[in-house]
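Try this one yourself first.
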C-alpha cells in the first residue's frame, strides 16, 4: 500500500511538472513579430498584452528590463487586470527595482487580485498563509482553500506548490 501511494504521488508530481513545462514554455515562446505586436497592444492599453510582456521579462533573467516589467504590471494593475495586480503586489511586498517595500499596499492588492480569482495570486496567498509570510497568520485551512481554488483554475504556480506539498508528505 505504501508503494502504491508513492507511485501515485510520483505520477502526480510528474503530471504537475509536465503541466508547468507546457504552460510556461507556451507563454514565453514568442517570435519577434509577436513581441512587437504585444508591445503595440500594450501601448494601446491592452492589459493582457501588458501581463504577457511582464511575464516574458520576469522569466528572461535580464535585470536591465526590471523597470519595464514593473511598468507593465503597474499599468495593468491600475487598470484592474487581476494577473498584473498579483504580480505588482508581489513586487511591492519585496521592494523590487524602484519600488519601495510596502507590505500594507501589497497585501491589499494581493487580496483584491485573489477576490477577482487570479489563479497565480491564489497560489501565492496559499503559500503565504502556509508559511506565515508577510505577517499573515499561519493557517493551513485558509492555505488549503486558496491552493484548491488556484488548482481548479489551472494555475501552474498552484500545481507547483501542490507538488511541493506532496513531496513533503502534506496531502
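Now uncover the answer:
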Amino acid at each position: 500500500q505504501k508503494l502504491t501511494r508513492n507511485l501515485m504521488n510520483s505520477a502526480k508530481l510528474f503530471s504537475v511538472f509536465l503541466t508547468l513545462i507546457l504552460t510556461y514554455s507556451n507563454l514565453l515562446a514568442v517570435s519577434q513579430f509577436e513581441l512587437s505586436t504585444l508591445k503595440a497592444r500594450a501601448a494601446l492599453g491592452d492589459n493582457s498584452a501588458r501581463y504577457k510582456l511582464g511575464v516574458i521579462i520576469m522569466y528572461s533573467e535580464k535585470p536591465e528590463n526590471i523597470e519595464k516589467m514593473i511598468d507593465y504590471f503597474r499599468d495593468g494593475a491600475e487598470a484592474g487586470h487581476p494577473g498584473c495586480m498579483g504580480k505588482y503586489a508581489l513586487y511591492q511586498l519585496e521592494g523590487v527595482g524602484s519600488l519601495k517595500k510596502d507590505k500594507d499596499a501589497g497585501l491589499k492588492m494581493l487580496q483584491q487580485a485573489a477576490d477577482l480569482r487570479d489563479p497565480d495570486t491564489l497560489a501565492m496567498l496559499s503559500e503565504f498563509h502556509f508559511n506565515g509570510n508577510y505577517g499573515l497568520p499561519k493557517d493551513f485551512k485558509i492555505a488549503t482553500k486558496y491552493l484548491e481554488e488556484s488548482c481548479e483554475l489551472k494555475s501552474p504556480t498552484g500545481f507547483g506548490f501542490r507538488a511541493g506539498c506532496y513531496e513533503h508528505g502534506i496531502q
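Discussion: The chain has a mean pLDDT of 84. DSSP finds nine helices and no strands in the chain.
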